[in-house]
Write a structure and sequence with these properties.
Protein Transport Mog1p, Chain A, 20 strands, mainly beta, 2 domains, 346 residues
Amino acid sequence: MNNNAKRASIILGVFMAVVLIGSTFLQLLNPNSSTVATVAPTQRVDPTFPAPLDTAGITYDEMYLHPSGIFAVAQPTGYAASQPSSQPNIAQINMVNNEALSVIDAFVQNPGTPVTADDLDGYFTEEVLDQSWSNFQNWSESTRRRNGDTLVIDFTVRFSNQDYVARQIASTDGEWIYVTRVLAPSNATNFLITVLENVNNSMTPFKQFAGQPFNWEIYLDPATNIAIRHPAEWLVTNSAPGSPASIAGSNGENLRVETQTGNILNDEAAENWVLSSRPNATILSVVQSESGTYTVAYAYATADGDPMSGFAALMNGENNQLYTANLRFAGENIDLNSYAPTAAAP
């Protein structure tokens, strides 16, 4: 398989998933930006915290979809999403509430091997936790305990001569590890517990994308609820809610995503869908997955005679809707149906 085919094959797992789906404290996340004044070593008066916010005024109705599309989690009122990040096996988001002096940290990780609730205690070593507290120099673990199938760890944190507390809840489904953690002033433990419980209960993974790198990005059309993931370096070049979208690959690939009317009921109909826009195409193969999605591999030539290959995914939706993703890339007679979805990586 040539380089273009290898590059194109990484999107095999992309097709298709419909997902039904937004000061002083900034120094807490960027401690290196603070200034240090030299003072005489006389009596020190630690600043005091304001009274904790009333949790009755906090709602959890708004869900934050991570840019990777790997998970969604509640974004409580008063918290602003900050610094979303992802690596091949982890996707993470921080949320900051400057008024409450509180930070939420939520992430999903794929350790690459099966994991049980009993494994969580050994997974969160001091070294792992130290990395998770990389923005803080003064932290310590207070307690840890099993609560059913979850691991609960409490922390104390010292920052700018003030004491903070944090609690982390970790769980697993046997494949992925889910973590939520809330940091708050030491006088706001009840506030912390309430926010943490609500955010943790809202954690929603999208296992439709299992087997794909976590550092891909998601394209989501809120008007049609069509969702598709693609390598982060690919660019959405044309899109609007309810309209077709074009996504350009970094090596000349072109992916078109749209919603149409009319279900696909058999292999012949899937072939005809491709031939309706590429009448001179050669159908290489048609496969129907267990979920009912049809994938059609095909080949054609440009007006200049350059060989091209294509791969279309057709998924039937409700109300006679058809969700489609059609990939085109340079290469001669490359049948992506013959490659396993997780066989290639970016």
